[in-house]
Amino acid sequence: MVDLPRNAVLLSFEGPDPYSMVGGLGTRVSELSLALAEAGVRTTLLFVGDPARDPVERPLPNLEYRRWCQWISAHHPGGVYDGEPGKCADYTASAPRFVAGEIVAPSAARGESVLVVAEDWQTAPALVALDRLLRERALRDRAVLVWNANNTYGFDGIDWKELAAAAGITTVSRYMKFELALRGVDSLVIPNGIPERLFGGVPEPLAQAAQTAFRRRPLFVKVARFEAEKRWMAAIEAFACVRERHREATLVVRGGREAYGAEIFDRARTLGLDVEDVVLASRDPETAIHALARARGAIVNVRSFVPEAALLALYRAADAVLANSGMEPFGLVGLEVMAAGGIAVTGSTGEDYVQPFDNAIVCDTGDPRELAAYLSDLTRDTRLAAHIRAAGPATARRYVWPRVLEMLSRKLAYVRSTAR
Fold first, then answer.
1. Would you say the pTM of this structure is higher than 0.85?
2. Chain segment 378-396, per-residue pLDDT in tens
3. What residues does each domain of the chain span?
């Protein structure tokens, strides 16, 4: 039974708008806000949103989006982190006043409390300011303040003593707990969740269409930002090794707009791998699948939005999905692959849920020869592949948002007891 405060506020830079959705944080706060609302909690997600969209939106009766810093974002069209210093200053100055005056005070008047979860380093000063403001207004006992670490970005700029005095500190994996401990910070581990809809997210006709459409095998997929820590080079070099034995092997990739992408594809071409760019003209999942399957490049580089259902169908149809990051705070993609019935290949940092050669393939090093050896195993050993594919969904079901919210509610009892 989930026992959470009647009201919740999520403070984050990233959010559900394409302008704001950069990586796992955007997915996390979007899905967490939905899960809280569906659990009956009145939820406000306050994020740095698209300057062209309405400042306030209510996608569900219990869910409200508040797009912050829009007046700054209007001058920074490059996305949520474009103009970051000015946005941080504005967020810190204005968000605490709004939360204290418009959410905590009315909730207190109704005899209710508010859970405030702030995400990553940009929101840490705002949470400290909110703690101070609530104390000044004699409202601190009506709010449970939590700051959550999704990554190590910005850690050097955080006043940890000040933050720990203002809020309970949580993180998403044991790996991240260790990173916080290196800075003398105690934390509670509350994992990320995945939405229950992912388990029914691949209609059987679409799954069969994907399985049939991709005739060139083995088929691998990699979806990640173009950053070195995602071990793109290891994936490309391992794929080149596999392709020496399987001339029809195909790698479908979807990255971001990072400059490192050019370096990745230059390396692929040096290895003799032709790269074909594909822009999907339709958001219909089956149309998208067939467009990707028609591409003839060894590496199919998707340079447009991929519908969620099409992506999940790809995960299921692929012989493996390469989520082989060198530094992964949690590993959300690996769980999504498992939920879809696919085979996840992960790294070995924050992916607490993996069991090597049982529910996933796990790479302990960045050596492409390790990854190539495991991919070759998968192509030869059909029993191993079938076992991993069958074990994945059971693992993923342990991380659906309702179960994560139950864990959150239990750990909040400790956070409340330590508030001063």
1. yes
2. 999 999 999 999 999 999 9
3. 7-193+400-418, 197-397
Q: What is the DSSP letter of 420?
A: -
Phi-psi region of 120 (alpha: psi -120 to 50; beta: other; left: phi over 0): left
Q: Tell me: cis bond preceding 18? Omega within 30 of 0 counts.
A: no
Q: Please answer whether residues 240 and 273 qualify as being in contact, where contact means their C-beta atoms are separated by less than 8 angstroms.
A: yes
Give 308-317 pLDDT, tens digit per residue: 999 999 999 9
pLDDT at position 30 over 80: yes
Cα 239 off chain centre by = 25
DSSP per-residue string spanning 219-237:
EEEEE--S-GGGTHHHHHH
Cα distance between residue 318 and residue 345, in whole Å: 11
Q: Do domains 7-193+400-418 and 197-397 have the same CATH topology?
A: yes
Identify the residue whose tokens are 């919740």: 8
62 contact partners, CB below 8 Å, separation of at least 6 = 36, 37, 38, 40, 41, 42, 43
Helices (H), 23-139: 24-38, 70-73, 84-98, 105-109, 124-136
Q: Hey, which CATH number is domain 7-193+400-418, 1.20.120.450, 3.40.1030.10, 3.40.50.720, 3.40.50.2000?
A: 3.40.50.2000
* C-alpha span between 420 and 414 (Å, rounded): 12
Q: What is the pLDDT of residue 202?
A: 85
Position 273 pLDDT exceeds 80 = yes
- Which CATH entry fits the domain spanning 197-397: 3.30.70.670, 3.40.50.2300, 3.40.1110.10, 3.40.50.2000? 3.40.50.2000
In the predicted model, what is the mean pLDDT of residues 68-72? 97
By three-state DSSP, how is residue 187 classified? coil
Cβ-in-10-Å burial (0-12, 13-18, 19+) of 172 comes to buried
Query: Six-digit token pair at 279?
Result: 């822009």
Give the percent of the chain with pLDDT over 90: 95
